[in-house]
Design goal:
Number of helices: 9
Number of domains: 2
Oligomer: single chain
Largest sheet: 3 strands, mixed
Distance between the termini: 132 Å
Strand content: under 5%
Structural class: mainly alpha
Shape: elongated
Strand order of the largest sheet: 1-2-3
Radius of gyration: 36 Å
């Protein structure tokens, strides 16, 4: 009696190929996909798109890399939303010129924080009025608030420091100081 015949089923092969591709990243993933398509032969792109859920653009990019031997440039820095400063180069400087004169330091002098008694909405309105920013193109209120945080202008109404309460011995202390001064002046005269 021989061993039972074992063979891979097509779905098992597809799952294996999909998992292998998912474990790779970037150039190596695209090269693997291109080699798989090449091994399949004619109609491999359609088969891979339908059964393995691989993107045709990725397949073609991998095939070009496989033929040329040169990996495609990964332009990660070109992806995503650009910062508000890229659209408005003077935005941070304009915010500083609006907020800086109104800032107050921590009244207790325990920290070096700058507090602004001005809201992000007011800053946004002043940017539109005084600096000519367009209402439609202007960054949203939340963006202005984040830029104020980046510039370390903290939102808080600054209260004046409250004087330390007078202790009962205060008058006695000052009377003693005055007495000592009088004694020192009299000694100098003699």
């Amino acid at each position: 009696m021989g061993q039972p015949e074992s063979s891979l089923k097509p779905k098992d092969i597809e799952n294996l190929l999909r998992k292998a591709a998912d474990s790779l990243k970037g150039n190596s993933k695209r090269i693997f996909i291109a080699q798989t398509i090449e091994a399949y032969g004619y109609g491999g792109q359609s088969w891979a798109e339908d059964n393995l859920r691989w993107n045709r653009g990725t397949i073609r990019k991998g095939q070009q890399e496989l033929i040329s031997g040169i990996p495609a440039e990964e332009r990660f820095s070109n992806r995503g939303r650009k910062k508000a400063e890229e659209h408005f180069p003077n935005l941070l400087a304009d915010i500083k010129t609006i907020v800086e004169p109104r800032c107050q330091t921590d009244p207790t002098f325990h920290t070096r924080r700058l507090y602004r008694p001005i809201t992000a909405n007011t800053v946004r309105n002043l940017l539109m009025e005084d600096y000519g920013y367009d209402h439609e193109a202007m960054p949203h209120l939340r963006t202005i608030s984040r830029k104020l945080d980046v510039l370390e202008y903290w939102p808080r109404k600054v209260t004046k420091t409250k004087p330390i309460k007078k202790i009962p011995e205060t008058n006695d202390i000052f009377n003693q100081v005055l007495l000592e001064e009088d004694i020192a002046v009299n000694i100098k005269r003699e």
